Amino acid sequence: MDLYSRKIVGWALDERLHTPLVTAALEMAVERRQPPPGLLHHSDRGSQYTSDVYKQALLRLDALQSMSGKGECWDNAVQESFFATLKTELELYEPKWGRNQTRSEVFEWIEVFYNRQRRHSALSYRSPVAFEEQALNLN
């Protein structure tokens, strides 16, 4: 998630939360955004984010890794809120689709609804895409 606009710029799905999953989401975000050196990347303290493989991926980007202190859950509140909303709105607490259908539903929710239509109070009730477009027009 780009915290400026709340836009989801990189995401991936898998059966387990391991390093290849978060690395794939990072790669998607980098491909889409092509950030300059100095990117600030925040995550929680999960082992997938502290792995050597992930740290090397960030090093290749010349990105600065930021993590919450132990027990400091508020630092990641925006992202955790996103995951709660995704799970609630798609009712993902109980399996109801196969993997391919779940991937399709998540794609549709993130790429069509969340990024382009869902309004955010933090963005003056604009969608992430509309917020970014307005910011570009102001420059």
Question: Any key phrases for this structure?
Answer:
139 residues, mainly alpha, Nucleotidyltransferase, domain 5, two-stranded parallel ribbon, 6 helices
Q: Which architecture would the CATH scheme give at its second level?
A: 2-Layer Sandwich
Q: Biggest sheet, strands in spatial order?
A: 1-2
Point out poorly predicted stretches: none
Largest sheet: 2 strands, parallel
Number of strands: 2
Into which percent range does the helicity of residues fall?
A: 40-55%
Please summarize what this structure is.
It is built from six helices and two strands; from the N terminus they run H-E-H-H-E-H-H-H.
How would you sum up this structure, described in words?
The chain starts with 18 loop residues before the first helix and ends with a helix. It is mainly alpha-helical. The chain has a two-stranded parallel ribbon with strand order 1-2. The model has no long low-confidence stretch (mean pLDDT 92). The protein is globular and about 35 Å long. It has one domain (19-138): Ribonuclease H-like superfamily/Ribonuclease H (Nucleotidyltransferase, domain 5). It has six helices and two strands; from the N terminus they run αβααβααα. It has helices spanning 19-33, 47-50, 52-60, 77-89, 99-114, 128-138; strands spanning 40-43, 64-67. Helix content is 49%, strand content 6%.
List the helices and strands and how they pair.
Elements: H1 19-33, E1 40-43, H2 47-50, H3 52-60, E2 64-67, H4 77-89, H5 99-114, H6 128-138
Parallel strand pairs: 1-2
